[in-house]
């Protein structure tokens, strides 16, 4: 791809040093559309020769999701979308494939920061940290504060054993847990299980036997409401639920009911079903630790993510390939 025309649909805020080097070598334009309809119109006009789109989530406020409708209007010249994010549920990758457009994302770059937040949420839920902090600020010190629980001796269940799930297992291995078990679409190799001290179980067993359940699977039609009313009834009474993946994986109404009846002791959430709107039952519950989707909200992580996107962009230009294609498109880039 020697005459690549690149369109930035979204901002590069941290890896500007890399972007500036690329600008000296390639034709790079900044997206200037003010609405989704204007962007669609521009795709047939001033963006008609674009071959690669750099896409970051901040542009979704203008263009909305890259769903089948929007993808149908992308220019025929487009070959690649390089996306800033590990989760890519805002892009219809099947519709892209039908048009021979291939998509990359940023796994690995988000592993450390997101796993750190998951570990923070687990410990904050165990030790009732938010309620304790609120109590202190209200001048009550420990008066009326309920006891926390220790992570030691507990069973941690990890749903989704990709990079983030494995990194969480590594983080939590120092807390003397009884066991770290996981469920994944595909069982990990024995070598990887041993490296991270993880034991494979089926999904039902994980629900039945875990004291702490942490969600790290992608959001797909199959994982929407993976934790629903039925699943909460299958869990141990007093379970702790943590979600740093995608909000729609948990039915928040079902979670609120499980919290109210004590089936779930506490919930730590960095993502929400109708983000940025949060279910009022979660906001009002004293044992919910709620964060505004800060899993990768560090300068270091954002730099790593943007660098990986720009590395994918350069790989597409120079070698007509992608370094980290989404799983659905990896079959086109086997090396």
Automatic annotation (TrEMBL):
An annotated GO cellular component: cytosol
Q: Which UniProt keywords apply?
A: Oxidoreductase
Q: Tell me which residues make up the D-isomer specific 2-hydroxyacid dehydrogenase catalytic domain.
A: 17-326
InterPro entries per the UniProt record, alphabetical: D-isomer_2-hydroxyacid_DH, D-isomer_2_OHA_DH_cat_dom, D-isomer_DH_CS, D-isomer_DH_CS1, D-isomer_DH_NAD-bd, NAD(P)-bd_dom_sf
Q: Which residues form a coiled coil?
A: none
Q: Which domain of life is it from?
A: Eukaryota
Any idea where the D-isomer specific 2-hydroxyacid dehydrogenase NAD-binding domain is?
121-295
GO molecular function per UniProt: glyoxylate reductase (NADPH) activity; hydroxypyruvate reductase [NAD(P)H] activity; NAD binding
Tell me which Pfam families the record gives.
Answer: 2-Hacid_dh, 2-Hacid_dh_C
Which protein family is named in the record?
A: Belongs to the D-isomer specific 2-hydroxyacid dehydrogenase family.
Q: What is this protein called?
A: Glyoxylate reductase
The taxonomy runs: Eukaryota, Fungi, Fungi incertae sedis, Mucoromycota, Mucoromycotina
